[in-house]
């Protein structure tokens, strides 16, 4: 049994925060950020992560030709859930009206969307459910340390979702590799975010980020390369057999280094980091959805999806479609309007913290 990907959708908040916007309150510039990261802008959300996830799911269901009543499982990958209890997936269930769906949250930082894909695929393969919605979504802006240039320029908000259905044909996730460099977990950490800090002076949102960029860079390339090598070996493939690589978009230099390490031509590598920055759990799935929307995923093509995140978790998936993915329908679901710019939303966050 396999878990075919029959639906896909995304939700990007309309408010954009450009590099020039960041330069109005940070000692930085468009040239400084672009040359070091490849990022030009990112999105800032005016709604919660569950609301972003809900809209992404509506589009994924429409693409699959399904309704909320069909959904049997919702797996929500994120690190910025609205609440820890009850879980955020149950809120998406309520917003969708997917009353029959079981609900669970997954938190592995930036790989959360990909670990959720593995979780849902395993549930379908084992016969627990016949279909599932997989979500990768994040609203990081409220807990961002906006005065810290090392991290404030990197992250943005967004969401994406996939709809999976049981299939007897070899499609969907053909194989995957998951792992973690637990001994290095402290080099990417957010202090003040979690029960460890309960009843302490620091309030939620007043977070301090540990971010050792050079060490993260090395581990990111090593973890994703290790995962890619494992999945290729499992399928007896080489990098030449891969039609498209859609990596986690954390830094353009990391993406380039990974492609070089795997001897993959850069023309095969999908990049959208300039538009969204790093959306953590949403990043890889948004990039995957956009590669489908742009017609880059074709019949029988094999897509390699490497990712890494805090923990330091890493993953790699090989995904295939038997036929060129074509949406069966479209949804007009959208977010409520907001009159504020990305810079104005960030200024509101900064002021609230002060």
What percentage of residues falls in helices of 4 or more residues? 25-40%
Radius of gyration: 19 Å
Number of individual domains: 2
CATH C-level name of the largest domain: Alpha Beta
Global mean pLDDT? 96
Largest sheet data: 5 strands, mixed
What is the end-to-end distance? 54 Å
Q: What is the name of the CATH superfamily of the largest domain?
A: Thiolase/Chalcone synthase
Class of secondary structure makeup: alpha/beta
Q: Layout of helices and strands, plus pairs?
A:
Layout: E1 2-11, E2 16-18, H1 19-22, H2 30-37, E3 41-43, H3 49-64, E4 73-77, H4 88-96, E5 102-106, H5 112-125, E6 131-138, H6 149-152, E7 158-167, E8 172-180, E9 188-191, E10 208-211, H7 213-234, E11 244-245, H8 252-261, H9 273-276, H10 283-293, E12 302-309, E13 313-320, H11 342-353
Parallel strand pairs: 4-5, 4-6, 11-12
Antiparallel strand pairs: 1-7, 2-3, 6-7, 8-13, 9-10, 12-13
Helix pairs in contact: 3-4, 7-8
């Amino acid at each position: 049994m396999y878990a075919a990907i029959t639906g896909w959708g995304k939700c990007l908040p309309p408010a954009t925060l450009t590099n020039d916007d960041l330069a109005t309150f940070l000692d930085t510039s468009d040239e400084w950020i672009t040359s070091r990261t490849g990022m030009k802008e990112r999105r800032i959300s005016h709604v919660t992560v569950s609301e972003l996830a809900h809209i992404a799911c509506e589009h994924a269901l429409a693409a699959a030709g399904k309704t909320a009543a069909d959904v049997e499982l919702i797996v929500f990958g994120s690190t910025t859930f609205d609440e820890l209890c009850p879980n955020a997936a149950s809120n998406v269930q309520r917003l969708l009206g997917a009353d029959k769906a079981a609900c669970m949250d997954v938190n592995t930082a930036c790989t959360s969307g990909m670990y959720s894909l593995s979780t849902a695929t395993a549930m379908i393969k084992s016969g627990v459910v016949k279909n599932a919605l997989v979500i990768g979504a994040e609203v990081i802006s409220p807990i961002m340390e906006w005065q810290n240039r090392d991290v404030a320029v990197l992250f943005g908000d967004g969401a994406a979702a996939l709809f999976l259905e049981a299939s007897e044909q070899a499609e969907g996730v053909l194989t995957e590799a998951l792992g973690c460099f637990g001994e290095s977990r402290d080099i990417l950490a957010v202090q003040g975010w979690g029960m460890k800090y309960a009843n302490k002076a620091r309030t939620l949102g007043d977070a301090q980020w540990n971010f050792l960029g050079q060490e993260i860079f090395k581990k990111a390339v090593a973890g994703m390369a290790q995962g890619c090598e494992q999945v290729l070996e499992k399928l007896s493939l080489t990098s030449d057999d891969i039609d498209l690589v859609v990596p986690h978009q954390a830094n353009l230099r990391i993406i380039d280094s990974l492609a070089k390490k795997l001897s993959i031509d850069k023309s095969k590598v999908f990049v959208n980091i300039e538009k969204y920055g790093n959306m953590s759990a949403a990043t890889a799935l948004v990039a995957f959805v956009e590669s489908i929307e742009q017609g880059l995923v074709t019949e029988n093509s094999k897509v390699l999806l490497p990712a890494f995140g805090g923990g330091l978790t890493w993953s790699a998936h090989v995904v295939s479609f038997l036929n060129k993915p074509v949406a069966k329908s479209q949804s007009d679901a959208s977010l409520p309007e907001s009159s504020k710019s990305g810079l104005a939303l960030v200024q509101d966050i900064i002021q609230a913290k002060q």
